[in-house]
Amino acid sequence: MSATDPVPASNTARQHVRAPELAGTDWLNTGGERLRLAGLRGKIVLLDFWTSGCINCQHVIDELRPIEEEFGDVLVTIGVHSPKFTHEGEREAIAAAVERYGVYHPVLNDPAMTTWRQYAIKAWPTLVIVDPEGYIVHVAAGEGHGEALRRVVAELAEQHEAKGTLRRGGNPYVADETADTELRFPAKAVATSGGRLLVADTAGHGIAEFASDGETVVRRFGSGERGGRDGAFDVASFAEPSGLTLLPEAIAQRVGYHLVVADTAGHTLRGVDLSNGAVTTVAGTGEQWRDGDDEGKALDVDLTSPWDVCWWDEADGGPGAVVVAMAGNHTLGVFDPVEGTIRRLAGTTTEGLRDGPAAEAFLAQPSGLAVGRNRVWFVDAETSALRWIESDGGDGHAVYTAVGTDLFHFGHRDGKAAHALLQHPQGVAVLPDGTVGVADTYNGAIRSYAPATGEVGTISSGLAEPAGLVVADGEVFVVETGAHRLTPLATADADQVDGEALEVRRPATVLASGAVQLNVVFTPPPGQKLDERYGPSTRLEVSASPPELLVEGDGADTDLSRLIRLSDDVTEGVLQVVAQAASCDIDAEHPVCRVTRQDWGVPIRVERGGDGALSLMMSGNPGPAGA
What we know:
Elements lengths: L16 E2 L7 E3 L15 E7 L4 H16 L4 E7 L9 H10 L6 E3 L4 H5 L7 E5 L4 E7 L4 H18 L25 E3 L5 E5 L4 E5 L6 E5 L19 E6 L2 H7 L3 E5 L4 E5 L6 E5 L12 E2 L8 E7 L8 E6 L4 E6 L4 E6 L9 E2 L8 E7 L2 E6 L4 E7 L5 E7 L5 E5 L1 E2 L10 E4 L5 E5 L4 E6 L4 E6 L5 E7 L2 E6 L4 E4 L9 E6 L5 E3 L2 E9 L5 E3 L7 E8 L4 E3 L2 E3 L3 E6 L5 E14 L7 E14 L6 E8 L7
Parallel strand pairs: 3-4, 4-5, 36-44, 37-45
Antiparallel strand pairs: 1-7, 2-5, 3-6, 6-7, 7-45, 8-9, 9-10, 10-11, 12-13, 13-14, 14-15, 16-20, 17-18, 18-19, 19-20, 21-25, 22-23, 23-24, 24-25, 26-35, 27-31, 28-29, 29-30, 30-31, 32-33, 33-34, 37-42, 38-43, 39-41, 39-43, 40-42, 43-44
Organism: Prauserella isguenensis
Protein name: Thiol-disulfide isomerase/thioredoxin
Pfam families: NHL, Thioredoxin_8
């Protein structure tokens, strides 16, 4: 197989495949050097196919840290940045994401997705291991593969050390310079009753308190080191904090803290006592949720990348509670600080856009929250959508969409909501005039939505990745993440925008109409087996956009293989597949168990003569060197 031939995803378990050479426009974190796989012979190479706005990709960056540290003398990790959104393909945007998320390995910018196609990648994130002789030996899609990757790398290091084909020492990573600014990639802000502004300093791993001018820092909470330590304001640590909300004074007096922080990369909620600066963990264990219960005593429940928080008086129909945008599993949660409990409010964990009863709705990386009257507005970053949740008139809640259609269409277009388009919004606020302001992050704009008329407009543009909005004494500030600052909202440059509709462009898989065999391939990590102690260890959920594409085979079941039936009348669409598998150590007295999970959005085209089968690789081994 030549270096330009793609890796056949359905055959990788049977073939010994040489890794295609890397192709892209430019490199980051290499000091300007262009890397080639041929020049890395003797090293174990781990390719991480990612895109900066994908929450699962951000999780994988954290999963790789201990592996990179343990095998630093034999392993070279290369991030292959393959963008979903137009903005993500810009070099400046990638450089910002590399710094913000602490990516300490070389990154290849692959805006045309050339390397993506050569490796036949179908999902973000996907991890590929190349052995010291240049052959692909392991492929894994999704997150939760940390231990499996560690075992594969350890086994390769041992094998190639014995063969004399392993090269130790040296690493092509060169850190890029960073500017010294008061804030680094701030995310959200709230205003206190005294007129001060509290800002989540995400890459600074702390909370900064500004005077009412939005420029003068009064004090900070957090040591600036990345971590999850509780304690006094100057010793406590945070991990990429994002959302902030203030509790009502009566509630704060009862629980002993005033501010709730969504400590995103720490997978916790933190409470801050503004009177003495003390920081405590109030929800989450510090471990990332993978599967199972997500309700109960707040300190006993795993969370997953809480991105924003807001106080809602209408929550649970009682005295109110904190709504949590749980970006990591596409849900909304409710945290009761008085009872010390947390539970799910909306979403199924399937990524998508579907309205209806809250327990059945599909969400997609909710990233911003705001309360307006009897509802909570929220933005779903991955569906480029503005949505809301409110009481259904009974004991439950329902989810509705104002702007947005699905996971794959976006743009910058004003007008009627059904026609309007956003691009990966991350912030929302109810503005003084009653309209809903949206931090349209990847469009670099502040948009407005008028609930009364359904009109969408552009208030301000030319901003650097705005991710939050805060109203303070009638004045609106923008949290301008890419510019590392708070910016008063200016409207002088407002204009009506009628941009083109864009969509995520990836190679379509050509399938036949009628019956199609869907298979998800999962191979347990070395030394592990499927965990069937308490019943089936796997789960597969299938849906489609548009729904009419899938005639039969939708819904969830425990088998990773399924016969589905595609419509004769729908020629193209996206097959949405969610798979997970639980595995445990073999013959261990106290086995370590893990859940692997992946979401695919597979663009398909239905044609006569198309394939009658679709195989997706969640984890697999193409074969040992020399096979």
